[in-house]
Amino acid sequence: MSKRIAGPEIERLIQLLARVPGLGPRSARRAALHLIKKKDALLRPLSAAMAEAVEHVKICSTCGNIDTSDPCTICTDPRRDGATLIVVEDVGDLWALERAGAMEARFHVLGGTLSPLDGIGPDQLNIRRLVERVAEGGVREVVLAVNATVEGQTTAHYITDQLSGLGAKVTRLAHGVPVGGELDYLDEGTLSAALRSRTEF
């Protein structure tokens, strides 16, 4: 049985931090110690920011993004191309595509991927709302920007079937050699996908 090394308030802080993705027990202890040492500069502002987030952050009823307004800033931005809808697994993927700044399109967040072994079926994901958005009209292209995993591809096939006959073209992200990538360092799956997805030069 491990000894308690701090008061219950500090132990609770460590336990909660350890539940954050990417932080294990050791990293959580280091993070808690750093926050406590910088109580006025970090811990108080972080506590206030988290309280504000709990109070004001919402899930967009249109696309599934998180924001302080519903509909979210992306859905209400008139400069965005409403005819193109980019479908992503999670909000983190949406943020990554926004940082890339490649397209001024609208988004749809699924909230995960189909995974029958984990009990995640279509009803646990934001697929029905996606079908509704396309059926409402105005969407000419749905870009499936899901991960190149078995679950991601299964989800992409399911969505393609659900959108069949609704008049929107369904495309997916290209898979293959990354910009700046060297062939010698790429795995066989990536090289195979790059060869299959080759384009005219």
Describe the structure.
The protein folds into two domains: 1-41, Helicase, Ruva Protein, domain 3; 71-172, 3-Layer(aba) Sandwich (Dna Topoisomerase Vi A Subunit, Chain: A, domain 2). It has helices spanning 8-18, 25-37, 39-56, 73-76, 91-100, 127-135, 150-163, 188-196; strands spanning 58-59, 66-67, 81-88, 105-109, 141-145, 169-172. Strands 4-3-5-6 form a four-stranded parallel sheet. Strands 1-2 form a two-stranded antiparallel sheet. It is built from eight helices and six strands; from the N terminus they run H-H-H-E-E-H-E-H-E-H-E-H-E-H. 44% of the residues lie in helices and 13% in strands. The chain is of the alpha/beta class. Strand 1 (58-59) and strand 2 form a beta hairpin. The chain starts with 7 loop residues before the first helix and ends in a 5-residue tail after the last helix.
Describe this protein with a few key phrases.
about 45% helix; 2 domains; alpha/beta; Helicase, Ruva Protein, domain 3; 8 helices; Dna Topoisomerase Vi A Subunit, Chain: A, domain 2; single chain; about 200 residues; four-stranded parallel β-sheet; two-stranded antiparallel ribbon; about 15% strand
